[in-house]
Each structure stands twice: as C-alpha cells, then as structure tokens.
Amino acid sequence: MKRNIYILISLLFTCFACTNNENKFFNPDRMITYRSNKIDDTLRSQIVEYDSLINPSGIESIDSFVVILSGQSGKIFSVYNSKTNMLVSQFGRIGHSKNEFIDELTTCQLSHDKATNKINLTVQDYYHHKLSVFDFSNAIINGTLELKNNIAYGSNEMDHYAFSNGTDDYLLYKSISSDGDVRDKYTNPPIICVKSGQKQNTIRLFHKTVESSCKDFVEIIYFCFPHLKSDGTKLVNVFSYTDLITITDLNSLETTGISYNDSHDFNYYQDIAQEPRQKLFDNLIIQNACYNISENYIIVCQDHKTKIDDFETMTTYDTTIRIMDWEGTLLHTFHVNEPLMRIAFTESTKKLYGFDLQKKLYCYDLSKYIK
C-alpha cells in the first residue's frame, strides 16, 4: 500500500512530451463557491458483510456491480451485486504473466466498450509506461481475466497518471514540476494532455503554482485524485488538502473550479509558504478525503478531524457527502456517522458504498434523493 502511495506522490511532477495545440488556463471567473452548510439529511448505514480474507485497498463501481480491490494474490477483484449485496465473482492474481498484476492495486478504470457492449478494466503499469486493458465482463462470468491489449504512451524521466477507456486514445495528467533541480522551488503548473486520434491538446490548470523551498509541502497541497468520465468528455480533479475541485471539458478545454468555503485555497498556502517546515505541515487539513464518479454524478466525501484538548489528541469525524453533477452544480449534501475513507456509487441501484478506517463496509440507500 505504501509503495502505491509513494508512486502516486511521485506523479506530482510535470513536463511531458505532448503537442501543444491548446493551452487554456483555469479562469477564476469560472469558480463556483458554495458557502452554505445546510445538510439535507443524515444517511443511515447498513453494514455489508464480505469475505473476511479480503484486505481491501480500494473500491470501484460500474453498472450494478461494486468491486473491492485487494492485495490478496488470488482475489484482487471481488465483485458484488449491489441489488443483493452478494458476492458474484472473485479473480485476479499478482504475478508477472500477461494476465497478472505486478503489484497491489488501489485504483483502476472501469468503462463500457461501445463496440462490444462489454466492460473494460484498464490498469496503469507505471513501470513500463503502458495501460493494460482486460475483459472485465467475461471475468465476472468465468473468473479469469484475459488481456485484450496494451496501450503504450510516451514518457520522459518522470511518470504521470494515465487514463483510457480501452481505446488507443488516452489522457495524461501530471501535477507540478520544478525549474532546474528538483530541490529548487516549484514553478510549473499542473498539466493535462489529451490524445484523440492524431490530435493532442495540452491544458494548464493554473497560471502559476505556490512557490516554497519545502518540496514535500508543495507536492502535498497539489495532491489530487484525477478521474475521467466514462465517455471521455470530462476530467475531474479532486484536491485532497486544498478546498478545490476542478472539472475540465475535454472538448472546449475549459475548466470550472468548485470550492466550499475558500478556507484552504492556494492563496492561503501562498501566504504561509515561507513559514518553517513544521508550521507548514501543522496547517495541512484534509479537505476532500475521497470521491467517486458515475455517468451523471460526482460524489465527494469530506472528513474533518478535530483536536479536543492539550493533553490528549483525539480524532472525531464530521463526515459530509456532497453530490454534484458534471457541470459542478451541488445537488445534495448529506451527513454520515462513519469516517469513510473510500467510496463507490452505483447509479443504477442508487447506492453509496464506503470503507471506514477499520475496513468495515457500509451501504447507504440514496434512492429517496436521486431519481
């Protein structure tokens, strides 16, 4: 697990080869800020029992399926039917053959193959700079993953986050980079590169980045979880330690920002960027713990931690679930009593699933609110 975190942290560098046909910056006028703390309701949970041998590292969803990712060699994927919460199939192995995975997975891309009407599983191979596409639909039936094809993408010395829906087109994302030596101040903003056919476009999300001599601090405040909409038309970036979500339209290359309270934005971090290292990290608070997407919705989970006295530091959770559409419009805000760290949403059955710190799996029925 730590290895994957280190790999993902290392993705927070930019500057990769991509034809620079477009270069549109994030426009502050396209920022949507929601300052209301109104809660629609407190969601009641149902505990979902799952295989006790599974050591969950992530959770994904598609159609009515909930997929638990695990580090267990013979059961990397455990597929559950969200209509019944019953186990459907288990498959996937760690190894070095063409149908195996060289490391534990914390995330993957599940998408529909329009040509075959099947589900594709796309996993990034960071070490070999390629995307591996598997037949997920057949694996649910026969319990065996089969590799359909590999998509190679160019890379320089530093890796990046890549996405594909199982086609040769792909999207590359990297967050920040430095001028000169990596120990110098960071100045280059995040970059998104989109390849569709022979056309390649580059999007820079920001005009500039927060400058600080503390490399780790800058990496963390730009740490985000990018995800591609299943039809390949939009990209969402949810920043973990910054009160910002960006949605980029990959046709117009315009980016919309969403904020909830402006309390920990990049201006805030710029003001404290030259403080001593320990003070910098004391000011880091998780803004967006995790999120999940579906065909029509973006669901963001926020866990707020609180210190209660000077002698003993205890952690309490005020967990908020926000549901918005792909235009950034806030539709619902819910409170849950569990400290969720990973979530998945099945749009067909209107159910939200989430793991807490003790890796208990909870289910919330949203059919009353989402029609």
Question: What does this entry look like structurally?
Answer:
With 371 residues, this protein is mainly beta. The chain has a single domain, classed as TolB, C-terminal domain (Neuraminidase), CATH 2.120.10.30. The protein contains five helices and 28 strands. Strands 1-21-20-19-18 form a five-stranded mixed β-sheet, with no helix packed on it. The protein has a five-stranded mixed β-sheet with strand order 2-25-24-23-22, with no helix packed on it. A hairpin with a 5-residue loop joins strand 27 and strand 28. The chain is globular. Residues 1-23 and 306-314 have low confidence and may be disordered.
Any idea what the CATH architecture is? 6 Propeller
Query: What general form does the structure show?
Result: globular
Sheet-strand content, in percent, reads: 35-45%
Radius of gyration: 20 Å
Helix amount? under 10%
The CATH fourth-level homologous superfamily: TolB, C-terminal domain
Q: How many helix segments?
A: 5
Mean pLDDT: 79
> Order of strands across the biggest sheet?
1-21-20-19-18
In terms of per-residue confidence, which ranges show pLDDT below 50 for 5 or more consecutive residues?
1-23, 306-314
Number of separate strands: 28
Our measurement of the CA-to-CA distance between the termini, rounded to an integer number of angstroms, reads: 37 Å
Domain count: the total is: 1
Class, according to the CATH hierarchy?
Answer: Mainly Beta
CATH topology grouping: Neuraminidase
Structural class determined from secondary elements? mainly beta
Biggest pleated-sheet summary? 5 strands, mixed
